[in-house]
Amino acid sequence: MTLDLARYIRPGDGIVFGQATGEPLTLTEALVQQRAALSGSSIFFGSGFSRTFQPAHADHLRFSGIGGVGTLRKLATSGVLDPVPCHISSVAGLIRDGTIRCDVAMVLVSPSNDAGEHSFGVINDYVRAAIASAREVIAEVNEQVPWTPCDHPLRREEITAMISTNRPVVELLAAPFGDTERAIAKNLQDVIPDRATLQVGIGGVPEAIIAMLGDRRDLGIHSGMVGDSVVDLMERGVVTNAYKGIDPGVTVTGSLIGTERLYRFADRNPAFRLCPSSYTHASSTIASVKQLVSLNSALEVDLTGQVNAEAIGSDYFGAVGGQVDFVRGASLSEGGVSIVALAATGKNGESKIVASLSGPVTTPRSDVDIVATEYGIARLRGRTIRERIRALAAIAAPQHRDVLIAQARETWGTC
């Protein structure tokens, strides 16, 4: 069954749908196919991992989003995705006040329970805000979407139109990791103690770090997203969520970004709760979490500690996302630390510890705590510029260190 979207979407409407694995594929595919009748409509993206949208679709659709995460990179590098630099914690508010226009919300949900309520399944970050703001709410009820506990399931009376499907949910395989990522993880092994609460993202470094945590006890999870590797820790009893300070016994996240294994594990599992980003990323919430270890990545870090996680020049490879929310939140958490982890060099051997960023400042140096590469860790919180330069040059690749120090002397007159 395919809906005639022109019954619900007017040319020029703003459309918001679940990001990442929460994309309602049947609806978005119909949107692409019917786009000529909906010309001028604008779509706001979070992250994307399907291949539904292509640069050619900009003939009738307008694209904006928080960055070039996943398959959205193709839209970004083609110049048809207009980036919106914003924190994940801000997205719901931007939707509510109309800055991000949402006339139509498209949502992927599970089959209903006995009360006629639908779970948001795999994504519940800013979906509720979109529903509250939309003129029309179109739901794709997919038999393969898990029922995950959440505070405010979708009620039938909130839905304008509904389509029933039975197809696989978008999946994202865990990122592979090698010797470099293992070396970074090894350098961080003493930074993640028993009873710590983890916030993790996507990538080889987070996967390598999670893989080394099998000997930890009573870890917790409070994160914007989780992947399949969290299942390993929960099944082995490493994650108990017993000492988080809030939400005892429950893994809290806004997004399940993984494979069928994760979705089935989370299905009707009371040890999970899918929460909106207004909760997961709120500073007041994160401040209540004990021993939060926030782990994020970067494209490059300059010698004073400024972090670029978004773009090299005008080419968008990432996004602001939840990095700043959790970096700042970790500083408020009792015993919390934040980590920015990256390989010391890029694919072509270029240093990713740099004298000057080639893109925007995602996280300011005043917020950065620990930077880690395969050559060690640099603790920057409360350090002077001179101390930062020395610490960061020391964890750069050896062949780049002398040049970095020389550039530091030239730029800042100090090292």
From TrEMBL:
Q: Does the keyword Hydrolase apply?
A: yes
Task: Give start and end of each Acetyl-CoA hydrolase/transferase N-terminal domain.
Answer: 72-151
Residues forming the Acetyl-CoA hydrolase/transferase C-terminal domain are: 258-408
Molecular function per GO: hydrolase activity
Q: InterPro entries of this UniProt entry?
A: AcetylCoA_hyd_C (IPR026888), AcetylCoA_hyd_C_sf (IPR038460), ActCoA_hydro (IPR046433), ActCoA_hydro_N (IPR003702), NagB/RpiA_transferase-like (IPR037171)
**Which keywords fit this entry according to its UniProt record?**
Hydrolase, Transferase
Q: Which Gene3D superfamilies match?
A: 4-hydroxybutyrate coenzyme like domains, Acetyl-CoA hydrolase/transferase C-terminal domain, Glutaconate Coenzyme A-transferase
Which superkingdom does the taxonomy of this entry point to? Bacteria
Q: Which family does it belong to?
A: Belongs to the acetyl-CoA hydrolase/transferase family.
Q: What is this protein called?
A: Acyl-CoA hydrolase
**Species of the source:** Ottowia thiooxydans
